[in-house]
Amino acid sequence: VGITTNAVKIFNALGTTIDPAYCTVMIGVVNMISAVVAAEVHSRFDRKPTLLVTTAVCVLMELFFAFFFWARANGGESLREWTDNNSNLALMSILVYFVSISIGVGMMPFMYLGEAIPSKIKGLASAFSLTLNMVFVFVVLQTFNPLVNLIGYHYLFLSLAVLSTVTVLTVHSLMIETRGRSISEIDEYYNTLMEKKKK
């Protein structure tokens, strides 16, 4: 969210030779195409590996952005020259980043809400999850620019990479596979889990 709403500012910081306004249009087009691709991906592949792979790609892109902005700001003349010559590579990396988000963490949580939550608490859990999501969106929008001014883009993207890595580890350890499973099968899974905990 923070990257999308501050796209022009980020593209200016990257030093890309493409007009930042056109870059923003490119992100919109990529997001639209990604939504179609995401629907196809989710119909063909399991939820857990899809989320793991796309989030891992996000980690790699965030690490690349952190290095790129660090090189521009603090890397010396040779690295700054390299960033000037490869600003369009950074732009392409951002587009890959948006594709990964659209297929993974951008869409998966909303899909997963309908598939993985036990039917008896689905309404309450969905409302709580969506409210929490909106709160986090608000926090990100309010803190993105102050954090950029405080720690710079390189540390901000490094922090995002750390958070994304935590997401990968959490998904790997906690997420259950729901593709192809009925609501009754999901309910039975949780019922069995609760019975094991009682024992």
Quick recap:
It comes from Hirondellea gigas. This protein is mainly α and 199 residues long.
Give a written overview of the molecule.
85% of the residues lie in helices and 0% in strands. It has a single domain, classed as Growth Hormone, Chain: A (Up-down Bundle). It has nine helices and no strands. The chain is mostly helical and 199 residues long.
List the uncertain runs.
none
**Which word captures the global form?**
elongated
Q: What summary fits the major beta sheet? A: none
Which structural category fits the helices and strands? mainly alpha
What's the number of extended β-strand segments? 0
Examine the secondary-structure arrangement and name the CATH architecture: Up-down Bundle
CATH class: Mainly Alpha
Strand-helix topology:
Elements: H1 2-5, H2 7-14, H3 20-44, H4 47-74, H5 76-85, H6 87-103, H7 108-116, H8 122-174, H9 183-198
Helix pairs in contact: 2-3, 3-6, 4-5, 4-6, 4-8
Q: What brief labels describe this structure?
A:
single chain, mainly alpha, elongated, transmembrane, MFS_sugar_transport-like, MFS_Trehalose_Transporter, MFS_dom
